[in-house]
Amino acid sequence: DRTIFMGFQNLDYLRAFVTNRLAWSRWNYMLCCAGAFSIWRRDVVVELGGFSPQFTCEDIEFTFRVHEHFRASSTPYRVYSLVDPVAVTEGPNTIARLIVQRARWQRVINETVWSYRRMLFKGSYGTVGLIGLRYYLVGEVLAPIFHALSVVAIPVALVAGVLSWPDFIRLLAVVAFANAILTNAAILLVSRGPASFATRDVAYMIALGPLELFLYRPLILVAQLKGALDFLRGDRAWHETERNRR
After folding, report:
1. What would the 3-class secondary structure string for 141-162 be?
2. Residue 21 burial by CB count (10 A; 0-12/13-18/19+): exposed, middle or buried?
3. How far is CA 145 from CA 94, 97, 141, 160, 238, in A?
4. Strands annotated E in 107-237
5. Cα–Cα distance between 53 and 194 in angstroms, integer?
6. What percent of the chain is helix, strand and coil (3-state, nearest 5)?
7. In whole angstroms, how large is the CA radius of gyration of the chain?
8. Are residues 63 and 33 in contact, defined by beta-carbon separation less than 8 angstroms?
9. From residue 179, how far is each of 9, 151, 156, 184, 211 by CA, in Å?
10. 131-to-13, 30, 81 alpha-carbon distances in Å
């Protein structure tokens, strides 16, 4: 699907699976095996009692549980993320469906981090407790709150004269292109592998990179804030939406 809306989601997935999860795998604190793309050893699933029905989604919680189990027992293990595509999934094709999906993702992240907070800052859990959990706390649980505060603080600073319009525009440009650099790095890594993109698709995704901050990220922020509120309210529903029509 070459619509701009689906293109932004494609960039989102590329960054998540290529630039993020590869680094997490290298140091063995890869804390989220996405349900649509994960394969678990049967004996591990049986040993840990299968997926938990107490969480909104099963994938991230089970990944956390695997890390906790093997770290606590000092058993050597690895959780890997691979770049090579072995499956496909269907992304939401409307704003409403995207917000429902991402709110659910945010909710289960908050649920899982809260449930496994005992691992946070604990040296006995190695890189999982010292790096992985810290990232999830700051970069996933708290980040939407700070993003929302910045949306309020920046206009106030402009009105108060603390921040000038030229400085604000330069700041937006720096953030937009910094995000685009990470996106382009992910595209480059994928293009060097067996799943190389067509030249026109690469050009299209590179062009979308700087626009993502203005056209896509605000929607994700709304969804994340909704997910955080749903978590505080104790919502555990899936809120399933209709599949895209072909």
Report:
1. HHHHHHHHHHHHHHHHHHHHCC
2. buried
3. 24, 22, 8, 22, 23
4. none
5. 37
6. 70, 0, 30
7. 19
8. yes
9. 14, 18, 25, 9, 10
10. 22, 10, 17
Extended beta strands in 127-202, E state? none
Q: Which two tokens stand for residue 227?
A: 């997910």
Residue 215 has a CB neighbour count (10 Å cut-off) of 12
With tokens 């140091």, the residue in question is: 27
What is the token pair recorded at 27? 């140091």
Residue carrying the six token digits 């992985």: 132
For the chain, 246 residues long, give each residue's pLDDT as a single digit of tens: 567 888 899 888 888 887 788 889 999 999 998 877 788 999 999 999 999 988 988 899 999 999 999 999 999 999 998 777 677 778 888 999 999 999 999 999 999 999 999 999 999 999 999 999 999 999 999 999 999 999 999 999 999 999 999 999 998 899 888 888 888 888 887 777 666 677 788 888 888 888 888 899 999 999 999 999 999 999 988 887 776 665
